[in-house]
Amino acid sequence: MANPDVEGILCDCVINLRENLKRRRETVYVGCGAGFGGDRPLAALKLLQRVEELNYLVLECLAERTLADRWLSMASGGLGYDPRVSEWMQLLLPLAVERGTCIITNMGAIDPSGAQKKVLEVAGELGLTISVAVAHEVHFETGSGSSFGGQYCSAGGTSTYLGAAPIVECLEKYQPNVIITSRVADAALFLAPMVYELGWNWNDLELLAQGTLAGHLLECGCQLTGGYFMHPGDQYRDMAFPLLQDLSLPYAEIGYDGKVCVSKAEGSGGILNTSTCAEQLLYEIADPSAYITPDVVIDIRGVSFLPLSDCKVQCSGAKPSSNTSVPEKLLRLIPKECGWKGWGEISYGGNCSIQRAKASEFLVRSWMEETIPGVNHCILSYVIGVDSLKATSNGTESWQSCGDIRLRMDGLFKLKEHAVQLTKEFTALYTNGPAGGGGISTGHKMEIVLEKRLVSRESVMWKTGLQHTNTSESETSEHHSPEKMPKLPKENQKNLTMRGYQSGFHHSPAPSGQKIPLYSVAHSRAGDKGNDINFSIIPHYSPDIERLKLIITPQWVKHVMSVLLSTSSFLELDAKPMDENVSEDRPTRKDNLRSHLVSTSCVDLTDMGCTTSETVGLKFLLCLRILEKEGNNNNQKKTKKKKIKQKKMSFTGTLDKCNMSNYSSMDGVLYCKTHFEQLFKESGNFSKNFQPGKTEKPELTRTPSKISSIFCGTQDKCAACEKTVYPLEKIQMEGECFHKTCFRCAHGGCTLTHSSYASLDSVLYCRHHFNQLFMEKGNYAHVLQAANHRRTASGNTLPPEPTEDVAVEAKEENGVSES
């Protein structure tokens, strides 16, 4: 039974200083019970059981992705709040109420009032007397001054990142057992109890910066205490399985003076040290000098970590940003429909598994063309275990060694019917495809993206409210008995106490004069927000940062990530390099985005001072693997005209590029879809007509270098001229190294790129001339003869630069073959 609502007044997000400040505690203990929507409730209960001094437990379960899912669910008649809220509360409420620990969570998503009712229902079933507060954004009808019936409304799923103020008001007015919010900045969920308990004001920016630092370190849960950290190939990150099995969620001890210590439970597993803290510090940080939250913009470049024990680390050095200490506007998320996604997966194992997967892809595309002509360009295919990460191939050996692979096909369509049809055609592989396939999984759903917009503080409104339950004392004793609560085994606690991570592990400088993988020198964690990705480079041995900074340049980053950029899912990706004077600001049009993807200007490097690490940011790298259809249909006619014009003018070979939707590969040799399917039809299998992959010469067989010559020398030889190739002039392709000047078309002498070349019998061609030579006689026999003759005549001399005569010749060959 719930009492009537108690509602607060309507407020905007303009910052107003607090009045009648009161310091309620000298130190407040704030724990993280969940770092994302899929976290483990039992781990949160263990933290409550082990750390009795916890004052607050924060469940951070709302990401931008899950917010879109909640909007889609509510739009279709489902729940607008996290459906697991009852599971969490059934497990945590009894002990939290007994200890007096307040639970703060953003599981309300776009329907906090619905979540509030569910929590009250769970409390009633448990026989608990509790109060549940809500703090949420309020939207108004256009042209009116009142909210929708006085209730929270998502306004089409729109939500704005709120700060800590609404939660602080809940604590001041209601002192509830549970606070449920809508979209609130992650760090603000943790900052709010600090402001309330320690008597901070909104202009205490130095204190707010330290509090926000604590919140940022805690917000991802076990990522601070050893989760997403263990790596068996790294001696500094390899931990015993028992340590990984019993990770402790983190908590922070914050003093009124801004002193912050992050900790894990005594006797628990996991690792808490400067390395795990540094990874989490830089996680999802776009600009370390200006990390923006609704309450304060902080500069984390001077943050340092001091281990006090195996379970506690002191954190200091966060300060307000020198440019803007408080943001003038807030970030608003607006869900937008971007089509229907359909997908399918099937597994193959054993002999010729990859060839069977490729045949399956060919069949599904053929069936789709029969039923819905013209939609194959909306479908992307890749083989998990072979090329799903777009790693460069080392030749036939890597193909033959793959005995267990999985084909996946993704499509993004304008119509739902097209997405459903893809799942139907894919399922037909069971009885119509190659032998030995199994484990088919298909699905379809509406694809939602969140559009981001900055809005003024005055335009964002919020309010609070409270409900509480009334239950009799007999009900409480019947339902809420200590005997029924899960207990942490004491024996387990003892064992974990005996095996702590040795924080004194000796770190030594990276060796010189030998080839070493990067992960033996440093560790990293990548994070993404929308289409931006950033990753940290943190050396195991701090002084190695100076050597790493000589290697990790924008050009180096682009080269390492080029396997992703060269197969962009965007149609007709323009590979022209950007002008050096082009601004690094984020483009607003997709055309600008495409050129941004292949430019070094999209790479930002930031040197972190006290943490002896470096953060690398790449703007617009993480694009959907599925083609974005928005705007493509309107430009199809223009694109076709542009293609015709390019074919008449092209002699550089850089315009007919291979992207994720138009290439196939056999034994390390790339083919366009058209010729790949044509060669398959001629013999009905993949054993004939296809050119064999290049056999590596024994003297060139070696482990690829993972790091520059700062740590070692180079013995790489150019496959074309057989001279030494140095890192700054090296291009690596299919296990071979080339000078940039040697990476040219054997027919026309034009410069090649990773996305514009074709290879036949170890001879390189641009795609334009490669296709042209095939069309002359319907095969490549005369091409091989010409290549042998050219090699005999010219020896190892470089092909000439393309001239105007070559351009004229390319034009003439489109209509008449050479005599």
Topology:
Layout: E1 6-7, E2 11-12, E3 27-34, H1 41-50, E4 56-59, H2 64-75, H3 85-99, E5 102-105, H4 112-126, E6 131-138, E7 159-160, H5 165-174, E8 178-181, H6 186-198, H7 205-218, H8 241-245, E9 251-255, E10 260-263, H9 274-281, E11 291-292, E12 297-299, E13 304-309, E14 312-316, E15 319-320, E16 329-349, H10 353-371, E17 379-384, H11 396-400, E18 404-413, H12 416-427, H13 429-432, E19 438-456, E20 461-468, H14 473-479, H15 490-498, E21 522-523, E22 526-529, E23 532-539, H16 545-551, H17 554-565, H18 590-597, E24 603-608, E25 613-618, H19 636-649, E26 663-666, E27 669-672, H20 673-683, E28 730-733, E29 736-739, E30 757-760, E31 763-766, H21 767-777, H22 781-794, H23 804-813
Parallel strand pairs: 3-4, 4-5, 5-8, 6-8
Antiparallel strand pairs: 1-20, 2-20, 3-9, 6-20, 7-16, 9-10, 10-14, 11-12, 12-15, 13-14, 16-18, 16-19, 17-18, 21-23, 22-23, 23-25, 24-25, 26-27, 28-29, 30-31
Helix pairs in contact: 1-3, 3-4, 5-6, 6-7, 10-12
GO biological process, one term: actin filament bundle assembly
Protein name: (thale cress) hypothetical protein
GO molecular function: actin filament binding; metal ion binding
